[in-house]
Amino acid sequence: MPRLAAAFLLVLVLAATCQAAPARLVLHWLPQAQFAGYLVAEEKGFYAKRGVDLTIVPGGPDVNPTHHLAESKAEFATMFLSTAIARSPETDLVHIGQVVHQSALMLVTRKASDIRTLQDLNGRRVGMWGKDFQIQPKALFQRLGIRVQVVEQAPSMDLFMRSGLDAVSAMWYNEYHTLMSYGLDPDDMVTFFFRDLDLNFPEDGLYCLRATWQRDPATARAVVEGTMEGWAYAFAHPEEALDMVIRRMKEYRVKANRAHQRWMLARMRDIILAGEPRPDPELTRSDYERTAAVLVEQGFAATAPGYADFVMDARPGAANTDPIPGTGGHP
């Protein structure tokens, strides 16, 4: 009987897919547990049951999500809020759903280096990734009036482990755990989370071109709703979600370590739920304006769109092209 029910459900999903509108969602990095909710939603049919035949396009070092949108290679994309704000003027992006509410970006030092406070970083060698990841640390150092020697950070943690860097950038769900796999115990490290330093930039969110939103807001809402259901399911069934993630990683020849992916999924739960019972796609005005202000102050963006012009209301039942209620903004 359970097999019969499962077969019937599969038939329903397939039937829905046949009638669904096709769409593509490009990720801003390679498949891993950071994107478990999207992969689960695709495989479990959460997009299809909402009338969207969604194909997930993997990201990577050579994939620019905004270019995919501008060149009609995808209708929807994931990216950090700071990235989207900086690129919005040239591509007319709009925000349709916030996934990650707490920044996972951090600086890590070793206690053996005698760095205990942020002021101890003055004059030290600090590893940083590309431009999008330098906004928070540079804003922090400017605020504290300290100067560091910025070193371009490679994907490997080897330079840090060989004491070639005094501090290294890390994502809590990824590189921090990698350092543990190198043999560092949490007690051996000093961590500085930007979310605790008044630089809590929301990270992974869902975006599309304004023209896409205005043409078909119903599909955009369906993508947001399906994604949130995917994350809720992934958190409720972590091992099943990991099976799907690792299967997709192997499909794209991405190295897959289940223990590392399990850590990543658990940390994604922390920063997505942020103490709430379920994923919430709302981007608050305060989070947006704090992030936008730092971008402009640091020169990473000449200007930033207003909240009401940038953040679309993707809640179920909202009027087709309304921004967040009570804010006015772009029609």
UniProtKB/TrEMBL annotation:
It catalyses: N(6)-(pyridoxal phosphate)-L-lysyl-[4-amino-5-hydroxymethyl-2-methylpyrimidine phosphate synthase] + L-histidyl-[4-amino-5-hydroxymethyl-2-methylpyrimidine phosphate synthase] + 2 Fe(3+) + 4 H2O = L-lysyl-[4-amino-5-hydroxymethyl-2-methylpyrimidine phosphate synthase] + (2S)-2-amino-5-hydroxy-4-oxopentanoyl-[4-amino-5-hydroxymethyl-2-methylpyrimidine phosphate synthase] + 4-amino-2-methyl-5-(phosphooxymethyl)pyrimidine + 3-oxopropanoate + 2 Fe(2+) + 2 H(+). Homodimer. Residues 33-241 form the SsuA/THI5-like domain. Transmembrane segments: none annotated. Responsible for the formation of the pyrimidine heterocycle in the thiamine biosynthesis pathway. Catalyzes the formation of hydroxymethylpyrimidine phosphate (HMP-P) from histidine and pyridoxal phosphate (PLP). The protein uses PLP and the active site histidine to form HMP-P, generating an inactive enzyme. The enzyme can only undergo a single turnover, which suggests it is a suicide enzyme. Residues 1-20 form the signal peptide. InterPro entries: NMT1/THI5, SsuA/THI5. Pathway: Cofactor biosynthesis; thiamine diphosphate biosynthesis. Keywords: Iron, Metal-binding, Pyridoxal phosphate, Signal, Thiamine biosynthesis, Transferase. This is Thiamine pyrimidine synthase. It comes from the Bacteria. Belongs to the NMT1/THI5 family.
